């Protein structure tokens, strides 16, 4: 990874404190290599193994590693061969499984004894000096331990690159994320402008160039990819950088993006979005990543910590591809601010939806992300909730959500249930006015197509399922059902939902979703509707299922038919 153009750091020093953490098993059961540092040999990375009980050797190894990295700009590993004196802790007994090793350990002297003896023998210090240093250190550590109880961590997040940013408040706020429609038209047209001698793939002429040109000329039919390009382009014109990485992101997994286009004769790459105008100060970078979600998400999280003025995005090829990186999300992305006061604006794009292709890749496990939040079940959420989870229905909403990440004076991780089928759906489009002055991100979208006094039932939903519900309602010629879209599930917009529900006095309330009952947002939304809004929602959707979807495409229509039948019953009761 470190030698790939999108992820090079000009070399890193990897320090391994090899303290035999696997002491509860025999050494031969832990690894097929002699030491854990041997993995570096696979990549021609030098490995410096050093006795952890020899401080002089440790110093020389450190100097050697620094000189290597400085001279060659390459990785280097320092593998400290150490031991655990007490096993996992002072109450553990490592001799159960490694009696011979701990017979050796019992004979070893602590490092401080080795160092003290060497210093005394050389005459560098007097007789009482080592004991004095140890005592001073113990006093310092004891004082620090007591101070922990009253310690307030320094807000390092708001220094250096983070100067001017702040912590969010306990209420939900709305931000002006609009942009001049004339400038957006110019940006959109520039995204399909190429040098005169550039030969792009002929398919792009119809599916990309002509299509986008028409969108900008008419101001209508703006699709998801165009909404994203307008967000990226407008942010770069305002001086923000954009960094998007993931598998297939330059063209898009579904051939929807084409951020970078390749000359069919020379193979030369060209990114039109970086040639918008001479006043463009930001840069948009799309990086096709290696096939390691854990490695890439970890890198992008770190990048977001160091570069708050860069919109950092990671896109999974399919929504469930976040699974290999789950540890990074659990331990860092969603909890880093609470643990270390370190904000991150990392955006995770997770294609989600029951579209009938790639059944194992159907779900981005919306329910997991909601469970990882510290959203309140009994009171209103604010901007200070640890993570944002959105399941949006229009390109304009996507545009505003991305721009909001940079416009606000604070940073929060954003989890996006991004679409698959909606990428080219004629229903999921926006007009240029929805991006322009006076527009902003809408956490909740009501139903302007029904008369409130004639509504008998209200369906709350989010994401792609809205279009399934709306189309079924049209098919049934039903004018008594209202559909409310919750575009941002977390932080939960209780006041906005309440305002929409209040329009329909006496109506039945349902939560509708395409996910199975044990997945999706049902448990999250129903609890808050009951505790905060005072409404007991009924459920409309698939029954419980251990798998995300059926195993074969040919069975998906049947499942959809079952879902539609249940919907008919819901809408006609």
Summarize the structure.
By secondary structure, this protein is an alpha/beta fold.
Helix residue percentage: 25-40%
Kindly estimate the percentage of residues that lie in beta strands according to DSSP.
5-15%
Span of the ends, CA to CA: 57 Å
| Biggest sheet architecture | 7 strands, mixed
The counted number of beta strands is 17
Category by helix and strand content: alpha/beta
Instruction: Give the low-confidence spans.
Output: 557-566
Global geometry: globular
Mean pLDDT: 90
Give the C-alpha Rg: 29 Å
Number of helices: 17
Strand order of the largest sheet: 7-4-8-9-11-10-15
Task: Please describe what this structure looks like.
With 573 residues, the protein is α/β, with parallel strands linked by helices. Helices cover 34% and strands 14% of the residues. It contains 17 helices and 17 strands. The strands form four sheets. A seven-stranded mixed sheet has the order 7-4-8-9-11-10-15, with helices on both faces. The chain has a five-stranded mixed sheet with strand order 12-14-13-16-17, with helices on both faces. Helix 16 links the parallel strand 16 and strand 17. Helix 8 packs parallel to helix 13 and helix 14 crosses helix 17. The protein is globular, with a radius of gyration of 29 Å.
